[in-house]
Give the backbone structure.
Amino acid sequence: MSPSFFEIVELPNGDYALRRVDDDAAPLVRISFSPEAKEMMADRDMSIAKAMIAAGIEATGTISEEVDWGDEEGDFGDAQPNYTLH
């Protein structure tokens, strides 16, 4: 299987999306900001969307490391992340 490359794009409706470069399927992640949030970000919305996606990828890696994938299917026990979301 060849490696996948991803891109972050602005969609026609103003949302941001993470998608595979070589795939026209639905995006893997979609971020939508309210008009009020966009106004507060002062044209930094793409940078903030990138940071949000990077944080999500990092959190996914952290959670994956904490889960013992050898457990019975669906039994994740106390695999809660050790961080606080704000």
About this structure: Helices lie at 35-41, 45-66. The chain has one domain: 6-66. Strands lie at 6-10, 16-20, 29-31.
